[in-house]
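Materials and Methods. Structural model of Carbohydrate ABC transporter permease. The 271-residue sequence of Carbohydrate ABC transporter permease from Actinomadura vinacea was retrieved and submitted for structure prediction as follows.
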Amino acid sequence: MRVGIGVRYGILIVLAATVLVPFLGIALAALHPPGSQVGGLGPPDDWSLEAFTLAWERGGFTDLMRSSVLIAVCVVPLSVVLATLAGYGLAVLKVWGGRTLSAAFVLGLTLPVELVVVALYFNLREVGLTNSHLGIILAEAALFMPFGVYWMQTHFSSVPKELIEAARIDGAKDVGVLLRVLLPVSWPAVTTLSVLYFMWSWNQFLLVLVMMQDPERRTAPTGLGLFVGQYSTDVPLLAAASLIVIAPIVLVYLAFQRNFVNGITQGAIKG
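The predicted structure was written out as C-alpha cells:
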C-alpha cells in the first residue's frame, strides 16, 4: 500500500516538475539584464526587472493587452450565455430536432480553425467585419460554441429530473427553472467553461493574425509572435514578453481555481 502511494506521489512530482521547471527557467531568464547571456537555469548575476519594462515598451503591449482584454471580456459572457441557453434547450426542453442539432455540435468539435479561417475571412470581409474587434469576437464565439453547447448539455442532462419536476410543480416556467433551479447548482460547470473560453480567446493566434491587419489592434499573442521575430537573440526580453502574455491566464486560473477543478471533476465523474 505504501509503495503504491509512493509511486503515485513520485509520478505527480515528476509531472509537476515537467510543467514548473520550464516556467522557472523563463522567470530566471527574464530577471537577467536585457541583452545578457542566459545559461540554463542558473540565477542571474545582476537581478533586474528592466527586461519587463523594455519588452512592454518595444512590443507595444499597452495596445495589445487592451485588445486582448476587450475581445476576451466580450467573447466569454456572450459564448457562455449562448452555450447555456442551447444546452438547456437540448437537454431539458427537448427542442424539436434536438438529436440532429446535438450531432451537429459534436461534429463541430472536429472542425479546426485552420480549415475555416480563409473562408471566414472572405465572408466577414463582405460585411465589413475584418480588421475590427467585433469580427474577432463573433468569429471566436461561433468557433467556441460546439464545445460549450456539448459541455452544458452534458451537465444539464446529469441534473436529477426530480429537481426540475419539483420546480415545475411549484409553477416555475422554463426561464425560472433555468435561472432559479439549474444555474445555482451549475456554477462550477459555468465557471469552468468561462475559464476555458478565456484561455482559448486569449491564446487565439491564427484567427486574429488573419482577420486583423492593423498591428496595433491585434492581441498580445500575435504581438508576441512578431516580437519573437524582432528580438530572437535577446533571451531576457523574449522571456519577459512571454511572461507578460501568459500572466492574465495564470491570474484568472488562480482566481477561479477551486470552481475550475470542481467543474472538471464533476464532468469527469458524470461523464
